[in-house]
Amino acid sequence: MPYTPDKPKLAESSDELRARIPGWGVDLDPEDRPSVPKERFDPNLNGAHWEFPERQPEKWPREMSIEHKFLTPVFGTSCPPKGLSGVIRRYSYRTYSEGRAAHWLLLLAADRVDAVESTLRSFASRHPDNPITETGVLSEFTHHGLSSRLRGKRADRVHHPLDPIIVAAPWVLAGGVAYLALKRVVSRNR
Questions:
Q1: Which of 69, 113, 151, 171 is a Cys-bridge partner for 85, taking CB atoms 3.0 to 4.6 Å apart?
Q2: Into how many domains does the chain fold?
Q3: Model pTM?
Q4: The pLDDT of residue 1
Q5: What is the average pLDDT across 160-172?
């Protein structure tokens, strides 16, 4: 018994358990197992037809941790690194180990830079991003957004005042910069 000077009871042996519990240990003998006719252990039978898997062709130099000797046989190609964010990612992988905070902080920074690059790229396209519909602001008015924020015990209640600033500030700042640039161009042409 815990917290007393009594010696703990020793575990029961297999024979004692078998005598006390009906059916205990029926699968101890491999010959009694239902899967024995199907179960064949062959250490060389692993299902693979190769010693090392065939390598995926590398279309451009891929980022790889400095801990690894070579690139894994299969890797993702859906989002190749591009622009300034790609430069930051390559620098992070080339310079720092995955065990260093600097590696991951640079990758986070590259994600933020990629978000800005994508926004700027959308302005150059025929269909720029629409911050009103794509951020879900309209659902605040149509799907009880305000009441769900004010009532109940939500864990994210602390950062609600920051949400408009984080979402809207970059757009307001970009609009202000565009306005000042346009104003300067117009004043120079007069």
A1: 113
A2: 1
A3: 0.53
A4: 44
A5: 79
